[in-house]
Amino acid sequence: MSFLLKSMVSSQLKGFGLGGSSEEKKEDGEGSDPAAAQGMSREEYEEYQRQLVEEKMERDAKYNQKKAERATLRVHLREKYRLPQSEKDDNQIQMAGDDVELPEDLQRMVAEDQDEEEEKNSILGHIQSIQNLDMDTIKEKATATFTEMKQAAEEKCCMM
User: Fold this and answer.
1) Is 0.85 topped by the overall pTM?
2) How many CB atoms lie within 10 A of CB 39?
3) Residue 29 has what pLDDT?
4) How far apart are CA 41 and CA 23, in angstroms?
């Protein structure tokens, strides 16, 4: 990193005219060597290029991991809401190595959603939803159904 700082500072000083003019003349003469154009020795330049490649690989790996995490979340949501699956998401998960896990925040969200679904499907959930219904409407439907059943029974039965 020191060579990176050195190259940045020296190039800035050259831009202000504080750098030696002999160095500028050398650079004009040696245009084919990229290390000299950057103001570094050959070893420093190779180390710098290697670090750039490593950093790019790390960024790409993190980016692919994030994409796979998002794809995993989409897969979970599609399963939950019974939507069709996407091949694109499956491919992203496979590219990340199939060892993708949801981040903790997303795991908590999925767990909360599952708890809510279980609560709605339980007896207590049904009782709570019944409390929100209009009782007059339920009574009207029940009496209408009872009347229809009574009429159907009278038509079929000779005794009534």
Assistant:
1) no
2) 19
3) 46
4) 13
Query: What are the structure tokens assigned to 133, written together?
Result: 């219904």
* CA 31 and chain centroid, separation: 45
* Residue predicted with more confidence, 107 or 122: 107
Domain spans of the chain, in order of start? 1-40
| Torsion 138-144-149-154 (CA) sign | positive
Rounded Cα distance between 76 and 71, Å, is 9
Q: Supply the DSSP string of 27-85, one letter for each residue.
A: HHH-TT-HHHHTT--HHHHHHHHHHHHHHHHHHHHHHHHHHHHHHHHHHHHHHHTTPPP
Residue identified by tokens 């692919």 is 64
Inform me whether the pLDDT recorded for 160 exceeds 70: no
Q: What would the two tokens of residue 66 be?
A: 């994030």
CB within 8 Å of 13: residues ≥ 6 apart: 19
